[in-house]
Design a protein that fits this description.
Blueprint (H helix, E strand, L loop, with lengths): L1 E5 L2 E4 L3 E6 H4 L3 H12 L3 E3 L7 E6 L5 E6 L3 H8 L1 H6 L2
Parallel strand pairs: 4-6
Antiparallel strand pairs: 1-2, 3-5, 5-6
Amino acid sequence: MYLHLGQDTVIKVNDIVGIFDMETSTISKSSRTYLAAAEKSGNVVNVSMELPKSFVLCCDKDGRETVYISQISSTTLLKRTGYMDEISNV
């Protein structure tokens, strides 16, 4: 299954490590440090030039990490994955 992050960007759901709210997660110094290091190493893909609302951390089968910054809220992205539907069916 795939997740649409906005514009023309689609990622595999199986590659997602986490979906984070930009406003609440960047309060932590460790999150800010991680995002700065990822950007410096060229592992950040900005999906939109609009105000960022979330970021998605992905790791492919080769272990390469990519951070996608999206204008779509973390709640909406989580709903799009269908993960919450699976939990409610248990």
